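Priority: medium. Attachment 1 of 2:
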């Protein structure tokens, strides 16, 4: 959950009254060994780490959801009059979202970013819905609905100006693999595969349908890193224009981001100190779930997987609505040498996303390899490479194939 408004280079969400924070160092790249013996550490820390030593790779994909907050002055957008299409849609329910609908939305997103068109990009961001998401956590509670609409539109306009030139939200390709309607018939959860150069990522997007029947983004989650757009928005300076005092826990969200970065950089002592400083902070359930998940990642980094597993369970109990919790458990079980459980958790993740996943299949391959099951290991490694040919398991596949009489070559 590093600070992020959306993919891939560090950038910053804006608001017309914001004061710019100091620039942040970009996320470092990191990797994790794929060795058969003692090199299972930190597979539990999630896809922040690539299984690489045997394959000789150190270039993990960049995180497409990291940024910090930068102000861009923008006048509040006036309310738009209802269009004939909006009036018609009010009388006649719109059909549920489909993969084709959402794919068309992401095609328009790519067109807007390729043209570096801030106005077009702003129309694809739902600022008011983003602020209502923050209100659900106890932030911005003094804002009236009219203020949320006005302030949110200004937020989206400023974000469009900042995000249009380069970096975040810019992808070479986006493929929508699944769309799930949410309780609100005008909201949907989309799962995508995104590519930027050789950087490959799987991202979940929360979208809301506007009155004119177009879709807009209000949240996202990077399934490799856990970064959430909605959590980053909480740290935007001067987010509340009323000047109301923020809830006490809000000042500690930035420490949680710093903890994530320290874990990613293998800064064990720093991460341990930051984690301890967050003990007892009264976070709302979704943020507490993120803290517990990160605390579990730290225990895996410290080679304490049996301490990590209860933390992942607690995070899920507090509403950690993310399929990546299964993949984190798989890594922790693998590190604890609980190989059947590791395989089961990895398969649970694959089932949850209803799609193949290179990282999950690499975990399954490692677990089979440790159990002296080269046929099953090779099959899992081949699936990992089929999902992502850039994934660093080719060497592991070649190693297992030495014991297979007629196995296909990687």
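Attachment 2 of 2:
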């Amino acid at each position: 959950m590093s600070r992020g408004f959306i993919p891939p280079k560090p950038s910053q969400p804006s608001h017309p009254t914001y004061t710019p924070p100091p620039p942040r160092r970009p996320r470092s790249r990191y990797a994790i060994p794929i060795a058969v013996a003692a090199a299972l550490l930190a597979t539990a820390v999630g896809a922040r780490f690539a299984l690489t030593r045997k394959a000789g790779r150190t270039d993990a994909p960049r995180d497409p959801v990291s940024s910090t907050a930068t102000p861009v002055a923008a006048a509040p957008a006036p309310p738009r009059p209802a269009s004939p299409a909006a009036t018609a849609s009010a009388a006649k329910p719109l059909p549920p979202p489909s993969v084709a609908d959402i794919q068309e939305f992401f095609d328009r997103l790519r067109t807007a970013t390729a043209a570096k068109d801030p106005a077009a990009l702003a129309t694809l961001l739902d600022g008011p819905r983003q602020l209502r998401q923050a209100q659900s956590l106890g932030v911005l509670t003094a804002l009236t609905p009219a203020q949320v609409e006005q302030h949110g539109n200004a937020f989206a306009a400023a974000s469009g100006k900042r995000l249009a030139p380069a970096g975040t939200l810019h992808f070479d390709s986006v493929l929508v693999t699944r769309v799930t309607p949410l309780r609100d018939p005008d909201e949907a959860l989309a799962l995508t595969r995104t590519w930027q150069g050789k950087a490959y990522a799987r991202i979940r997007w929360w979208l809301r349908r506007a009155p004119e029947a177009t879709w807009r983004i209000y949240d996202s989650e990077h399934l490799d890193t856990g970064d959430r757009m909605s959590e980053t928005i909480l740290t935007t300076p001067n987010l509340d224009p009323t000047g109301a005092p923020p809830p006490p826990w809000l000042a500690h969200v930035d420490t949680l981001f710093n903890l994530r970065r320290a874990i990613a950089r293998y800064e064990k002592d720093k991460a341990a100190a930051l984690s301890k400083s967050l003990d007892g902070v009264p976070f709302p359930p979704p943020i507490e779930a993120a803290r517990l998940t990160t605390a579990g990642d730290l225990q895996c980094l410290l080679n304490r997987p049996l301490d990590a597993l209860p933390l992942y369970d607690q995070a899920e109990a507090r509403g950690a609505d993310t399929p990546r919790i299964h993949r984190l458990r798989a890594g922790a079980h693998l590190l604890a040498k609980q190989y059947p459980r590791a395989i089961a958790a990895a398969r649970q993740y694959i089932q949850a996303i209803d799609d193949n996943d290179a990282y999950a299949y690499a975990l399954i391959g490692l677990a089979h390899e440790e159990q002296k099951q080269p046929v099953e290991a090779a099959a899992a490694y081949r699936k990992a490479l089929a999902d992502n040919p850039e994934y660093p398991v080719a060497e592991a596949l070649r190693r297992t194939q030495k014991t297979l009489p007629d196995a296909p070559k990687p």
